[in-house]
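Loading example: each entry is read as four labelled lines plus one structure line.
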Amino acid sequence: MTTESLTQSQPATSHRQVSPTRLKILQVAAGLFAARGFSGVGVNEIGEATGLGRGALYYHISSKEDLLYDITTAYMSDLIAEGQSILESESDPTLRTQKLSRALMMAISEHLSEMTVCFRELHALTDERRRAVMSLHSDYQAIWSRSLSDGMAKGTFRPIPSTVLKGLLGMYFYSFLWLDPRGPQNAADIGDAFAEVVLRAVRA
Amino acid sequence: MTTESLTQSQPATSHRQVSPTRLKILQVAAGLFAARGFSGVGVNEIGEATGLGRGALYYHISSKEDLLYDITTAYMSDLIAEGQSILESESDPTLRTQKLSRALMMAISEHLSEMTVCFRELHALTDERRRAVMSLHSDYQAIWSRSLSDGMAKGTFRPIPSTVLKGLLGMYFYSFLWLDPRGPQNAADIGDAFAEVVLRAVRA
DNA sequence: GCAAACTTGTACCGATCGGTCTGTACAAAA
DNA sequence: TTTTGTACAGACCGATCGGTACAAGTTTGC
C-alpha cells in the first residue's frame, strides 16, 4: 500500500519514477533518518547501508534533501488517500472514526521509520518543501475534520475546538516514540483504543 | 520556574553551576536546536547567535551534546517537580487532572523551544544519556499514572491501558508542532480543553 | 559483434564539522 | 609590582560534509 505511491508511474505529479534501487535507498534512508535525524546521517552512511558508492547513490537520487522530501510526501499521500477513501465509503460517524483510527495506527506501525521521519524531521526541509509537506498534514487533518463535522450534522457528535482535533491527532502522531510493532498489543488494538478516546471526546 | 533547576547551586546532582553567560548559551542553543535540529546546528552558529567566539563558547560548555543534555534534563526535571507537587497537594482526581493538564500545557507554551528539544531531539543523545532522559519521561508518565490509579481507587475513574495514557500524553507532547504561544487561544484554555478530553476518556 | 544506454566506484571539490590551542585583556589578590 | 584567575578571540586540527567529474564496467537493442 505504501509502495503504491512510490512505484506507480507518475505523469502529472512531481514524483519521479522509482527503480528498485531507488526504492531500496528510500527505505534505508528512512531507517537512518529515523534513528539519527536527517542532519545526523551522512550520504556516505546511506551509501554504505545500501551497498552503493557515492557515485552510484547520486545516480539514483538528486540530493539528500530529495530523499527526505520523497519519503514524507509519499507516505503522507498514502495516508490521505486511504483517509479519503474511508471518508467516502463509510457514512456512519462512529464506524468511520474507528476505521480512520485503525488505518492511521496501522500505517504508523507498519512504516514506523518513514512515519517518524514524516512527523519529526519536517524542520530539515527547505522553506518551500516544508510548506508543501505541512500542507499535506493539513489535508489529512481536514479529512478528520470533515468526518467529525458530518457526525455533528447528524447529531452524533458535538462541536470541538480545532485545537482539540490537533491534540487528538497528536495522540497518534506522537506514538512513533513509544510504539513497538513487535509489542504485545498490535496496532489494530491500539487504534481501537484510541478510537474510543476520540469518540468519548466528541460524542454529543 | 524553569530557570530554577538551571540556576540553583547543585551540590549533589550532576548539574554544574550556571553563570549568566552559560544560561544565555543554553537558551540560544535551545532556540536553534528547535528550529533546525541538533545535528543541523553547528557550534559556530551557536557562537554567532550568542556573540561569542569558539574559544569563549567552549570556556562555558564542555561539549555540544552537553548543551542538549542539560536543556532536556533541566526542563524535564521542572515538569516532574511541578507534577509531583500537584499530585501531593490536590487529592480530588478531577481537579488534579485539570491542574496537571494546565501545568503541562503552560510549561510547553512558555518554553516552547526547550520542550521541542525535549520531545523531538532525544535521538541525538548518546546511549547512556538518552536512557537517562527517557527515564525522566517515564517518571513524568508515572505521575499521571499514579494520579489516574488513585482516581480509579476512589471510583471516579475507570482503568485504561497504558498505551492510552501514552497516547493522551502524546496529545500534549506533540503540540510543540502547532502551538503558537501568541495565538488566540492561550495555553491555559488549551490545557483545560485537553483535560476535558482526558476526563472523558477515563471517567467511569 | 558493436554501439548506445545504464550503473557503478573512485578521486576529488570547497566548505564546514566539533573541538583544541595559544595568546591576551583585565580585574582582584598578594 | 607581580601573580593569579576569569573571560574571551581567533587560528588551527583532522575528519567529514554534500555534491560532482569521469572513467570503467555491465546490460541492452540491433
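The CA atoms of residues 58 and 64 of chain B lie 9 Å apart.
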